[in-house]
Amino acid sequence: MWSSAPRRSRLIRRSIETIIFGAAWIAFCSFAAVAGRLQLMEWMKNNDSYGYAGWILPILFALLGLIGFRWLLEPFVSYAYVVTSQRALIVERSILGKVQIIEYLPHEIAKLHVRLVQQPNGDGDLMLDQHADFNDSDQTVEIGFLGIAQVKEVEALVLSLAKPHDLSVSGSTNHE
């Protein structure tokens, strides 16, 4: 029935905090690794020992810095959104190629709180607020179709899935 992908600019705007945190994380780890290495060189100059133990912290911080690249690359994850006559799908493919599919069947959509965020040009986000209980607390996880065109039409398609379909053929009912 309908398929689309989000606008890249919308994903980047939504991920700006993660990108900034990733850049700061990389800067901190790089500084710690270099400072650790310089401190190691100073220590080795004053001592005639060239042990391997002093390399652990610089290497550890360098490896921890690599985690920041995952946060920097978050907006470049590929998404596809699909609405069929039987379900709504969100397909996510990571940079490493891992595919995750989130499926919403009609009875699940009926239980969700669908929230529309529309721009003046008709583009926007269709959020499906999914409630999940973790440790006796009610936590809301925002998942949905981000940065799509004609979001109001897509909302109507998704909400139509939750409505019961009339399977009777007109004129074939027998009233006795």
Structural account:
With 176 residues, the protein is of the alpha+beta class. It folds into 2 domains: 65 residues; 86 residues. The protein is 40% helix and 28% strand. The chain contains 5 helices and 7 strands. It has a 4-stranded antiparallel sheet. The protein has a 3-stranded antiparallel sheet with strand order 5-6-7. A hairpin with a 5-residue loop joins strand 5 and strand 6. Helix 2 packs antiparallel against helix 3. The radius of gyration is 25 Å and the shape is elongated. The two termini are 38 Å apart.
Using only C-alpha atoms, the radius of gyration works out to 25 Å
Total helical segments:
5
Question: What integer is the average pLDDT?
Answer: 78
Low-confidence residue ranges: 166-176
Task: Please indicate the count of domains.
Answer: 2
Briefly note the structural class of the backbone.
alpha+beta
Principal-axis shape equals: elongated
Number of strands: 7
Secondary-structure element pattern, one letter each: EHHHEEEHEEEH
**For the report, how would you describe the main beta sheet?**
4 strands, antiparallel
In whole angstroms, the N-to-C terminal distance is 38 Å
Query: Helix content range of the residues, please?
Result: 40-55%
